[in-house]
Each structure stands twice: as structure tokens, then as C-alpha cells.
Amino acid sequence: MLERDVMGKMETATTIAAHVAAGRRKAVAVCHEALGRIEDRDPRFRAFLEVTPDYARPRAARVDADLAAGKPAGPLAGVPLAIKDNICTTFGHTTCGSKILKGYVSPYNATVIDRIEAAGGVLVGKTNLDEFAMGSSNENSAYFPTRNPWNTDCVPGGSSGGSAAAVAAGLVPLALGSDTGGSIRLPAAFCGVVGMKPTYGRVSRYGLVAYGSSLDQIGTLAANVEDAALLLTVISGQDPRDSTSVDHPVPHYCEELRDAKLAGLASGLRIGVPAEYFGAGLESETRAAVEAALDVYRRLGARTVEVTLPHTPYAIATYYLVAVSECSSNLARYDGVHYGHRTAHPRNIIDLYSSSRNEGFGAEVKRRIMLGTFALSAGYHDAYYNKALKVRRLIKDDFDRAFEQCDVLAGPTSPTPAFRFGEKLDNPLAMYLADIYTIALNLAGMPGISIPCGFSETGLPIGLQLMAPVFGETVLLQAARLYERETEWYLRRPPVTS
Amino acid sequence: MAAVIDEEQVWHIAKLARLNLSDDEVQLFAGQLAEIFAYFRILDTVDTEGVEPLAHALAVTNVLREDEPADSLCSEKALANAPQREQGFFRVPKVLDQGSGT
Q1: For A384-424, what is each residue's pLDDT tens digit?
Q2: What value of ipTM does the predicted structure carry?
Q3: Smallest CA–CA distance from A101 into chain B, residue
Q4: CATH topology (fold) of A2-261
Q5: What's the gap in Å between the CA of B68 and the closest CA on chain A?
Q6: What are the structural domains of chain B?
Q7: Cys staple from A413: which of A139, A177, A337, A465, with CB 3.0 to 4.6 Å?
């Protein structure tokens, strides 16, 4: 049985952890198999910027040794994981997909890294992303684009495209991503996996390289809802090193997904359907798949409620003004002095800053720094940045009002399945519009999840997005699992993995 | 909130942002930034009279802790990624008497 699992379907993280904890499998063997799959399959998709076998193998051996010595097994015992390369690790490099951080070795681990390792997880490498997490296609990586495992002519989505592709291609069962405006949910939808963005403050951002600090949140990419819950339980909780992380109880999210907990839940569940998420621009196959998902919920006894989020048409402009403003401030630190790229022959100190930055950053990062610098500059600050913050409140108020009528919201994750490489590359605004259904949630700080709900005629995955109020992770995961239990979309894997 | 984004404006923003853009980049960004800011003007149509700005989605307050000494990054680790270093310091070109730079 194990042989078949290794060669064919990848085992789930939950299964691996149970086997390793019970002594039925060795973490070193699980790690060896994951590294083998990466070596075998990753050249076709290039999900990884860096694979770190020399780090992973001894860590796996350590997990086995601890268990042999009688130490209790952690919840992620022996589970191989991949980490988006904007999360700091003392092993390997942390490049953020940018030339400006080429060769950078972080002197410290992000809090999530320490938590995963304390739980027995084995980190096997760093995954590709749009430079500094700015992008929706992975085409903005300064190194190479990751390809969609379902169709290598298509983008995997962004910015956590490497992490989503690594899970979809069966290289690892779990990966970390970050979501500022949909960067976990969009690639999850495009690659046919489960992608969850927790509540802002649920997971420590310490060691997550900052892009839009009031929006950024670390989250999970997984092959199923239970595995997503497993990893979320490990990484959640307040961290004294991140003052925006919140002191809020962390439930054992997996326990909340047991059949006994789900029994009777559907009949009381109210699912809000925001009219604005089903308007013009929503592609017909995606609409049909999402409406079929709503039918599944109704069949289970849930009630669907029409709700309205009237400020949705303003979400993209609001999001980008907030994000680029925070970006222009956050990325001021890359100055060619303390770390990162330095220009070869600076004429003076100003040229050292300006040339190092111009050589080190890619086009989209420069564009966003420029947009943010302008939006914050004297004379325009009130008109753009402050105006956006006011509309941000109206957008959050929309969600608060909607959640008075329902427990979760449901809609598409993206208006279309994965698009082709190059399709939107020359038109930044068209690329921004791909985020239409994901970005409002970040402005409101609320949690959301994308789960597989069907396929296009051309064989590309379609994502169903569920959203919940602040710290509503339990009901969000339960609603996702209720649907997953009734369907088999999440079990489908790209041809290469079978 | 009309804003004119032409090449001169782009040069000015690039200088503020410390980006030594090429002529081609300035030309490209002038068009793209103008288009994006034109799109942002959709916010002009929203009535925000009396609306408080929302900088942070959660109602978090300042978090205070005791001011206790603790270890910080040692100098060797802090300098490990420096492009140029000398005798335990980051090395940079001469800073004084440079005028305003370019």
C-alpha cells in the first residue's frame, strides 16, 4: 500500500503524521520520497526556487530520533512542507522572488517556521512567487515563472503560485503562502487545491517580508480541508514579536471537523450569496460550477440568503491605493547598504540607493513603489490615500452588515480559470482586475478559503470561495468540509501525478 | 483629485522613490500610471462625508510590554549579508559634501 501511495497519490499530511507518530513510517523515508518526487516532477513546473535536501534530511532524522527517544509526536510529525520564499528561514535563501535579495540568508526564522518545526514538520524548500508577492500570475518572479500543473501553458496564479503548484503536483502535501489581496486563494483556485487566508492577526507575520502590512497574512495551501486545518492549528496564535497578532483562543481546528461536529450543522447554516460576485465579467463555466456548489449546500439543508456588498465596485481601487502606499514605505529598506543587491560603481550615496534599487527591482515592483510614492506625496495624500481608507471602512461595513444575515459568504474565487502566460502581462490594470473577488476580504481583515468546485471544459480547475467574519475560521473550515465531503473535485490530480 | 501624470511627474516621483529609471521606463510608466490613476478616480464617486478612515481592519490597541534588556542580533549576524563591510561596519560611499545627488 505504501509503495502505491508513494508512486501515485501523495498521502495526506494527516495520514503521514499519524503513520510517523505510530511508528509505522519513518520521517526520513517520507522526506526521501518527497525529495524524489520534487526531483522527478518539478523540472516541468518549477514550483521551487530552492530545494534544500541537506537541511531537510537531518531534520527528518531528528524527528525520528526524538520519537525513538520517547518524546511525544508533534501534530506535523514527519510531514514535508514547502515555504513561500517571502517567509524568512535560516536555511537556504530568502529572495522574495527578487534579484534585489539574490543570495540573501535570513539571520532568523519567521515565527511560523519555528512553530512548524516544533510540531515535527520537515521543510524541504522555498517556493516561487511574484516578486515581493506582487502579482496574480507568477510571471513577476525575477527568476522564472512557475507553470500550472494542469496545463503548463497556463499560469498557476499568484502570488503564492509556487506553493499552490507544489501541492497540486503532489510534491508536498502542505505549503505556506501569504495573502495580501488573494495571493493564496487565487493560485489555490487556479491549481485546484485548498487555499486559506486566516483572519488578519490570527497568524504571526514576524519574518514575513512586508508588502502591505495592514493586509498581509500567512496562510495554508493543502490538498484537502483537514490538512489545511491541521497546519492552521500549528501556526495560529499570538506572538510577542508581532504586535498585530491577536490574543484569541486557538481551537483545535481538526477536531472541529469531525463528523460528529458536522452532524446537524448544515441544516442551520446560512450561506450569504453576494449579488456583486455574480455580475458581468464572471465567466459562464465558473458561474455554473459555483451555482452547482450552492445547490450542494441547499441539498444538505443549508439556507442560501441573497446579500449585497454594495461597495464591491470600489474594492480594487481601494485595495491598490492602500497596498501600493504601504509597499512604497515597506520597500524603502532595500537601499543597497545593509543587505541585498548593490550597484557596482555608485557615483555617490544617492546614486548607490537609486541605482541599486533600479537594478534590483522588477517592473511591477517599481510600478507599485511609484504608485505608492505618488499617492502619499504632498498634495495628493488626502485625495488618494485617505480617501481609500474611508472607502475601506465602507467596504468593511458592507461585510459586517452581510454577516448579520448569514454565517458564511459564498462565491467564485476568480472570474475565470487560469489564464495563459503573457495574456495580461502588458496590461497591469487588467492583471489587477483578476483580483476582483478576493481583495475586499483583505481590506476587511476577514478569513477566506478557496476549495475546488469543478473544472472547465478545457480541464482547468475552478475555485469556490467561502468567507467568514473575523475569527470565524471554525465555521469557515466546517462549511468547506461539508461541501468537500459531498464531492470529489478535491481528489482529482493533474495527469502527471497519477 | 485630478492629477497630471506625465513624464516630468514620473521623473519627480522616481527621484522621491530613489529609483534611477531609464528613459524607456519613464515613458512606459507615464502611460501606465496615468491609466491606473484614472481608474482610481472611481473613488471620487463615493460619498465619504463623515466616514472615519480605516487604517487597520481589527480594533487593536497599542500593545505595551515591560522594557527589559534582551539579546539582539549580534554584529556578525547583522553584517553577514552586507554588500560591503569594513571593521564591523557597513561601508558606504562618502555621505557629506555630495550636494543633493541625482
Answers
A1: 999 999 999 999 999 999 999 999 999 999 999 999 999 98
A2: 0.92
A3: B81
A4: Amidase signature (AS) enzymes (3.90.1300)
A5: 13
A6: 7-45 (1.10.20)
A7: A465
* Structural contact between residues A398 and A270, judged by C-beta atoms closer than 8 angstroms: no
Residue B42 CA to residue A387 CA, distance in Å, equals 11
Residue labelled with grid coordinates 497546519: A231
* Cα distance between residue A242 and residue A333, in whole Å: 19
Q: How far is A315 from chain B (nearest CA, A)?
A: 9
Chain B contacts of A349, Cβ < 8 Å? 92-95, 98, 101
E strand or H helix at A176: strand A174-178
Q: Shortest Cα distance from B24 to chain A (angstroms)?
A: 12
Could you tell me the residue ranges of all domains in chain A? Answer: 2-261
Q: Identify the three-state secondary structure at position B56.
A: coil
Which residue in the set A200, A318, A351 is minimally distant from B57, CB to CB? A200
Q: Which of A366, A393, A432 sits opposite B19 (nearest CB)?
A: A366
What mean pLDDT, rounded, does chain A reach?
Answer: 95
- pLDDT for residue B99: 56
A301-333 burial, b at 16+ Cβ within 10 Å, e below that, comes to ebebeebebebbebbbbbbbbbbbbbbbbbbee
Residue A24: how many other CB atoms lie within 10 Å: 9
Query: What is the distance between the alpha carbons of residues A484 and A285, in angstroms, rounded to a whole number?
Result: 19
Q: Which of A83-87, A294-298, A332-336, B96-100 has the lowest average pLDDT?
A: B96-100
Please tell me if residue B61 touches chain A, with a CB cutoff of 8 Å: no
